[in-house]
Amino acid sequence: MSDPSLHADVPPSLVEARDVRVSLQGTEILHGVSLRASAGEVVALMGGNGSGKSTFVRGIVGAVPIASGAIDLFGSPAAPLTRARLGYVPQRITAAGGVSATAIEVVTSGLLGARETAGRTGSRLRGLVPPHDARARARAALASMGVEDLAKRDVSRLSGGQQQRVLIARALVREPRLLILDEPMAGVDLQSQVAFAHTLGHLKEDGVGILVVLHELGALARHIDRAVVLEQGCVTYDGVPPKDLGVHALPGHDHEHPHTDPPVREGGSLGLEGP
Ligand SMILES: Nc1ncnc2c1ncn2[C@@H]1O[C@H](COP(=O)(O)OP(=O)(O)OP(=O)(O)O)[C@@H](O)[C@H]1O
């Protein structure tokens, strides 16, 4: 990494990926992707289906190996210990996985393995048992997602959108400095999206860095500082988020269905620049 003192105006990054390549089953999926997010910054990772968004965030969290390049988390090379400090909500998984568990149990489980649990510094049990205030923290996390009333419900019987909110609460309960969300709004109704946008605003004010995979900026638009667009495993845009545009404006989008979005501009421009 370059000497930060040489760039005093650039805030230190919570995540910095440089020239990341990932191959899956013999095919290179990411062809040198770079991205950074700093404290208090919300970065939207956008792009058409199959452009590599999930593969990239899975590379950051260590779910797929990177073939080359580098990923720093909290200023150090990514490693299991540094990865344990981030909050991650993967794309479209069911909360319970067939196991019967209440929403509050699912959220409390987010505190297991966390290295920064309050009150247990130095304990051999640190990270292996939930902290004493786990249930109160889990309830607060559920409340921040507007689903406190679901605390005692079996997650396997919740709707997809409700499960998604419980999973976001599970990531939030660790109070991570960096939150990585893969399409958190998928299957979530508009009212809940607006509630989550408020939560996101508070997290941002608290200095949390957020990397969020989105197809549309939607309810989160006003909190997004920067958009990074992937196309076929390459970054084709990194800058000011587009206003009122979503994946329809991206070059990789399949334009078979009718809609009223502005056309993609000629000459390699993505039509994503601000107004
Ligand atoms: N385990 C895997 N093995 C082989 N190829 C894979 C695997 N996972 C993903 N891919 C391929 O990698 C490419 C990128 O997939 P990825 O899921 O990262 O895209 P995405 O941008 O997240 O798409 P979407 O918007 O549909 O979620 C696709 O061509 C996909 O088929």
TrEMBL record:
Residues 246-275 are annotated as: Disordered. Gene3D superfamilies: P-loop containing nucleotide triphosphate hydrolases. Signal peptide: none annotated. It comes from the Bacteria. InterPro entries: AAA+_ATPase (IPR003593), ABC_transporter-like_ATP-bd (IPR003439), ABC_transporter-like_CS (IPR017871), Metal_Ion_Import_ABC (IPR050153), P-loop_NTPase (IPR027417). GO terms for molecular function: ATP binding; ATP hydrolysis activity. Pfam families: ABC_tran (PF00005). Keywords: ATP-binding, Nucleotide-binding, Transport. Belongs to the ABC transporter superfamily. This is ATP-binding cassette domain-containing protein.
